[in-house]
Design goal:
A hairpin with a 3-residue loop joins strand 3 and strand 4. The chain has 9 helices and 8 strands. It starts with a strand and ends with a helix. Helices cover 51% and strands 19% of the residues. The protein folds into 2 domains: 127 residues, 3-Layer(aba) Sandwich (Rossmann fold); 92 residues, 3-Layer(aba) Sandwich (Rossmann fold), CATH 3.40.50. The strands form 2 sheets. Strands 2-6-1-7-8 form a 5-stranded parallel sheet. It is globular. The longest helix is centred in the middle third of the chain and has 17 residues. It has 220 residues and is α/β, with parallel strands linked by helices. The chain binds cytidine-5'-monophosphate. Cytidine-5'-monophosphate binds next to helix 2, helix 4 and helix 8.
């Protein structure tokens, strides 16, 4: 049983990051959003002009991948010692990332990075396969979800701040598509760990969701 790690898996926009960050803060753990690792790989690819079909070249950049997280009041992601935190949610990367994350060889590298982090610190780790594949022996595993309409509406609000022309129907369709890609890929698909505690936060805010998790943890 691994006591140093709490896993939070679930579909896109289910609140993993805000919930994970607050839960980690309350417990004195660090929070890692593993999606940022896949996104950083994509950033490196786009900067080097590497396409998602170019598996050999993807493997080459993964060989000497230098990704580091800084986790204080706010957290930051460094790629080759450059702070890339604000560069990882561009539409280009969001479109590319599911294809890259579906490559088994890429997942071997990300697995190594995730395992290394957990050796050093107590960590809450958010992703798609953290409780099912990476840390199946974690003591606490959560599966966070919300209705697809609610998740799309959260994403829509975020995107609307940057682009007023954005359309809710497009965001909803995109979200369903991303769920499908994550569920249907062969390599480490998104799935609920059998022993995960399920929290549907369609009707809960971040604080309420975290309080539910703390209830489980403290009464275990
Ligand atoms: O969480 P986020 O949307 O930033 O993750 C980006 C993509 O990375 C996801 O759509 C998913 O395809 C992939 N991912 C993954 N496994 C993880 C975390 C993210 O496959 N543990």
């Amino acid at each position: 049983m691994e006591d140093n790690i709490i896993t939070i898996d679930g579909p896109t926009s289910s609140g993993k990051n805000s919930v994970g960050f607050l839960l980690a803060k309350k417990l004195g753990y660090k929070y890692i959003d593993t999606g940022m690792i896949y996104r950083a790989i994509c950033l490196k690819m786009t900067r080097s002009g590497i396409l998602s079909t170019d598996l050999n070249k993807i493997l080459l950049i993964n060989k000497d991948l230098n990704i580091r997280f800084e986790m204080n009041d706010n957290w930051k992601v460094f790629l080759d010692e450059e702070d890339v935190t604000d560069k990882l949610h561009t539409p280009q990367i969001s479109q590319l990332v599911h294809e890259v994350a579906a490559q088994p060889e890429v997942r071997k590298v990300t697995r190594g990075i995730q395992k290394e982090i957990a050796k050093k610190v107590k960590v809450v780790m958010g992703g798609r396969d953290i409780g099912s594949e990476i840390f199946p022996d974690a003591r606490f595993k959560f599966w966070l979800t919300a209705s697809v309409e609610e998740r799309a509406s959260r994403r829509f609000k975020q995107l609307k701040e940057k682009d007023s022309a954005i359309n809710f129907e497009d965001v909803l369709r995109d979200m369903m598509e991303r769920d499908r890609h994550d569920q249907e890929r062969e390599a480490s698909p998104m799935r609920k760990p059998e022993d995960a505690i399920v929290i549907d936060n369609t009707e809960l805010n971040v604080e309420e969701t975290v309080n539910r998790m703390l209830d489980y943890i403290q009464n275990a």
